[in-house]
């Protein structure tokens, strides 16, 4: 509860000292450091309810952020990105990698996977890869690019 009170007080102090611009936003950073931007204008209402922080603009449906999902609230200019989704984005479960590449965010559809060295040499190629772990233990220590259907991820092999 103390965290919620501190969050509320800090938000109020920032809100009172912040001039409103046409491109101003309320930025809510969640526990995974993802930032969600909600437009800020004269009709914006920020409510600290029992269920979480609610942000509503004139005539628009309120956006609710449960307290356990809120790491920080700030005010600033918009990034120009209206919505950013990380769903279905590819990533690595571990980086650096010692022996196995474990890719997250792959939908399981067959894909072309390549491991490319920093000099541009193709070190591995798997056609029809469907998301299984990739053994890279035979690769020398170094920095590589993992390319899956032209989505590239830099990783370090230790």
Task: Please tag this protein with its features.
158 residues, mainly beta, Immunoglobulin-like, 43% strand
Q: Give helix % range.
A: 10-25%
Shape verdict: elongated
How does the helix and strand content classify structurally?
mainly beta
- Backbone CA Rg: 22 Å
Q: Taking all residues together, what is the mean pLDDT?
A: 79
Topology as a string of helices (H) and strands (E): HEEEEEEEEEEEEEE
State which percent range the strand residues make up. Answer: 35-45%
Q: How many beta strands in the DSSP annotation? A: 14
Describe this structure in words.
The protein is mostly beta strands and 158 residues long. It folds into 2 domains: 2-77, no CATH class; 91-157, Immunoglobulin-like, CATH 2.60.40. Helix content is 10%, strand content 43%. It has 1 helix and 14 strands. It has one helix at residues 2-17; strands spanning 24-30, 35-39, 45-48, 53-56, 63-65, 70-77, 91-92, 100-101, 103-104, 111-117, 122-129, 134-135, 142-148, 151-157. The strands form 5 sheets. Strands 11-10-13-14 form a 4-stranded antiparallel beta sheet, with no helix packed on it. The chain has a 3-stranded antiparallel beta sheet with strand order 2-1-6, with helices on one face. Strand 13 (142-148) and strand 14 (151-157) form a beta hairpin. The longest helix is centred in the first third of the chain and has 16 residues, at 2-17. Residues 16-22 and 82-88 have low confidence and may be disordered.
């Amino acid at each position: 509860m103390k965290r919620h009170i501190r969050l509320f007080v800090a938000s109020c102090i920032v809100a009172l000292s912040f001039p409103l611009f046409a491109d101003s936003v309320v930025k809510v950073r969640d526990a995974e450091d993802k930032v969600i931007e909600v437009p800020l204008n004269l009709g914006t209402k920020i409510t600290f309810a029992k269920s979480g922080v609610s942000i509503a603009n004139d005539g628009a449906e309120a956006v609710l952020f449960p307290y356990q999902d809120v790491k920080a609230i700030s005010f600033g200019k918009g990034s120009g990105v209206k919505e950013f989704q990380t769903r279905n984005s590819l990533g690595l479960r571990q980086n650096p990698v010692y022996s196995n590449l474990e890719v997250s965010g792959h939908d399981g559809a067959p894909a072309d996977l390549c491991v490319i060295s920093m000099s541009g040499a193709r070190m591995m190629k798997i056609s029809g890869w469907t998301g299984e772990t990739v053994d890279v233990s035979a690769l020398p220590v170094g920095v590589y690019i993992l390319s899956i259907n032209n989505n590239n991820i830099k990783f370090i092999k230790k």
